[in-house]
Amino acid sequence: MRSLVLMIQFFTRIPIKININAKGEDFSNGIVYMPFVGLIVGLFNYGIYILVGSFSNEILGIIFWLISNIFITGAIHIDGLADSCDGLFSARSKERILEIMKDSRVGTNGVIGIILDFLLRFGMLYTLSNAAKAPAIILAPVAAKAFVLLLFGISKYARPNGGMGGLFYSHMSLKRLIAGIFSGILIILFIGSWETLAVLIPSLILVLAFKKIVDDKIGGMTGDTLGAASEVSEISFMVSLYLLERLIY
Questions:
Q1: Separation of CA 106 from chain center
Q2: How far is CA 66 from CA 76, 107, 123, 144, 226, in A?
Q3: Do 28 and 173 contact (CB within 8 A), yes or no?
Q4: Which stretch of 75-79, 97-101, 224-228 has the lowest confidence by average pLDDT?
Q5: Which stretches within the chain are classed as H helix?
């Protein structure tokens, strides 16, 4: 329970007033709960979407879904996406890229990344059928957390002097990684279907392509690129749902 509370405190803005006094190994131990945190985020966002859509219209429901996602996550992954875009697309050396990503200021590439993120999210959810909207909103954060766990297992940490992302790489447990990924798959299967589970395949390809880009630039992942990977995973999950709908129907 201690590790679950820590993960909720780290990845969301849910006000749990418990002092964990966390150590490095607590973050690594908590990774098994990351898909459950994704489920909490997804259910919260879906509740806001349904609530607003019930007395308004589809467009306003989607807008408030975007707002609720920012509210509950504190935009932690969007911040990572912006920093990653500023650094990775700066055409600089590895050392300079890492410096740029650590800078709290947001540059042009970061702003473009955020805008594209919102546009793609809005466009995909608006385009999906009503039947696919629930799994898209609820399960995309679950899939994203499972993919981030996969990246933990198949990548190394790029910053030599540590950082926020390094908290999860220290004391890494292969059993907890596998358990976390498996729990994410079970959640997707339980709430969605076998067809929804198939959506993970094209999403995986896009996530691995993103990893290749990051590896070529800085030789590993950071907290920012892991946050960006989470955003890429959520959007690719929705894109894959859209493609699956077109193939089936």
A1: 20
A2: 14, 22, 12, 16, 20
A3: yes
A4: 97-101
A5: 2-11, 24-30, 34-55, 58-73, 76-88, 94-102, 108-127, 130-154, 166-169, 174-191, 194-198, 200-218, 223-248
